[in-house]
Amino acid sequence: MDAETLAVFRAETEGLVETLEERLLALQATPEDRELIDGVFRDLHTLKGTGAMFGREDIAGFLHDFESAFEAVRSGAAEVDAPLVAISLRARDHVAALLEAEGAPGGEAILADLARHLGKEAGAEEGFALDLGEPPPAAGAGPWQLTFKLPADTLVLGGKPELVLAELRELGATRLRARIRDVPPLPLLDAAELHLGWEVELPAEVSEDAIRDVFLFHEQGLELTLARAEGAPPPAQPAPETSISPAEPAPEGPTAAAQPRPAPAAPPSAAEPRDASAAAPAAKPSAHMRVPAERLDDMMDRVGELVLAEARLVDIVARSGDPSLVAVTEDIQRLTAAMRDTTMSIRMTPISTITGRFRRLVHDLTSKLGKRIAFVAEGEETELDKTVVERLTEPLMHIIRNAADHGLEEPSGRAAAGKEETGTITLSARYSGAEVLISLSDDGRGLNREAIRARATARGLLGEGAEPADEELFGLIFAPGFSTAAEVTELSGRGVGMDVVKRTIDGLRGAIEVTSRPGEGTSVTLRLPLTLAIIDGLLIEVAGERFVLPLAAVDEIVELPEALAEPGARGNAFLDIRDSLVPFLRLRQLLQSSGVPGPHQKVIVVTSADGRVGLVVDRIIGSNQTVIKQLSPLHAGVKTFSGATILGDGAVALILDVPQLVARGRLEADGREAA
Amino acid sequence: MSKHTPARHGMDLAGDMVTFRLSGEVLAVPAAQLREVLEPVQTTRVPGAPQFVSGLVNVRGSVVPLADLRVPLRMPHPGGAEVSRDAADDARILVLELPLAGQASVVGVLADSVHEVTRLAPEALEEIPAVGTRWPPRYVAALGRWAGEFVTIPDLPAIFADFLAGEAGNSHRPGEAGNSHRPGAPAAGPHTDAEG
Q1: How many CB atoms lie within 10 A of CB B46?
Q2: Which domains does chain A show, CATH number per domain?
Q3: Does the distance separating the beta carbons of A644 and B44 come in below 8 Å?
């Protein structure tokens, strides 16, 4: 496979493998759901077909039995149960592994398990599942007579008729004959076109669906007739029971001679099979596109340059004053702004892109731990920059694993505590001011306060006899190596990897909060600033320098009273806003700006962890869309800023980190008091 | 004087070099590290940042820290950390690609003027003389000669690594480590006795 083909193959199969996993997990909850069953079957079949089409017979071969198993389910002859889903999930993983590296091991064990589950001995490989659950052929029904002709451009499009024939042979096709009557005389023969048709006889016990599925990839322009032979030799051109051609919809309803066919939920109307299975997203022309992340980054960079070029253009045009040039420039400004917005929105990814992995993890943990666990996700539509979302996966998996392993009780323990036997782990995401809050809560036994305290004291994380608040104490479980020893079993796992969580969240400039009630459960909340993302910013000016404040942190803006314009002798600076005292900080001092403030300074009241705080600035410029750029490691020591952005005129402006700024202002005020 | 070409920190000193002027001295950096040369652009002050990297500039849509080599090399800088106003017409920013904390990073370096990309013949590259230089020797990779003038090749990896480790630049005067010729200091080794 050349690189380009390989890329196409990968993109196609990766999507299928993903939807397959989603559907299998959903199927576990609603095993009766016909749409899901059809979807799973279709995914399996398409994967198999795609594999075969790209010459990956290993994948096609491996999936064959699973396809058959689900075909039985689809035809109503078998049911979906938990073991089948579990084995299928393993199969899905194996296919993912095969896609990663050809010849990945482990497939045979999975097939053996499947066979065992289906009550068959492993080894009965060839088509053993085909008769599995097939309804016995109706009495009197003869073998199938199939006549088909693939579209003329099949070969050009990379189709392989020989694979179709091979599949038919697997179904037990006999008397396979080619029809050569459409082959043109030699001078007119185009070797790239397919002129052959075929006539095939198939055993009576094969289901109609099984036959039609062979042609899943050749529906466009396919000519096909399929009829029962009725024991008698078929007429030369048999009256079709169902005739299929793209131009004329298949007449539904079997003739008197026809055998009632197994009733799938959506009878595959072969004329327009894609629409018939509208429930299966994979079958629809996808509304989504997979794009390498680097291309988005590149695009963002280009847009950044475009904005700069535009700013220069605006400058020149303002000087020239040519009206037609002004009009064009305004158009370009409008387009650039729209382009910038669109590009930014492309980078935003909803949390739902990673929750699938958590569902899978919980599913795996359920069987591994022998507990009954439900996973609920709320606010999955909450969007974060894709980089943040990706970096969150690992920490969230850690927290879920810990909650399932140590937070939730055994079913018996839950019953004894008067709880439902099924424990619940809830992931909820929501915006809060300039932050995104992601909480993972379980309804388990809660953290053991005393055990944590003892452990923290033993580790020297806590002084003897200290009585820390819950918040502080529970935060200690994220300390590195907090519980490497297994003596406090309930806690042991909570320490493992939890420092990794802390490190990642620190890296994203976030914070972790833990709340827990004995017997009721534990909740871990990650507070993530919208760094690496795009925020609505408030552009302000202090001593001629511009800064950006996250607009979401801003409560209100008031004028600084003249009496307070100059830093006075009094250490405490409070504003009286509607009868409540709001302390304020002068950004001129915090930012070591030079010069003297003019009149009419403004106070921006922000909400911080410790309540409302006012920030005194010289001037409010306005709000703007702010792409946050991370500061270089050279500025890692500067905590007051969460990043920088590029303004419309190309200048760089720093983004103020409100919690850090307020903390620092407080520190400096304390320092002054102490001095 | 040793004839061999010092190539510390993987710097290929024998390749093309870009020569530029800073505070009256001629400096050079490997051309392979140079991404582009910019005319002075609006610099954003970073309050609270060390003087060595006190500013940020916009380089084609990226926010890039602007470093002032005069701070670690202890050269006089008349106009603070910004581009010297008196040299404004010729002043440039060298946009360099350097590894910072193990990651490929882009850093802007101030220059009063940029001369040319040239090849300094290996013989022209000399190890740091023991006396007669006022730069912290550990920050100087080599000395050379170009157009009749001495050329200093600063050891950028060492300068930035020290800064990131909190040794240099955090104070307005970089630590005295450069002067003291500690035996461990890389550049000082062969010359330690000569100074005493």
Answers
A1: 24
A2: 3-117 (1.20.120.160), 136-246 (3.30.70), 293-349 (1.10.287), 351-529 (3.30.565.10), 534-674 (2.30.30.40)
A3: yes
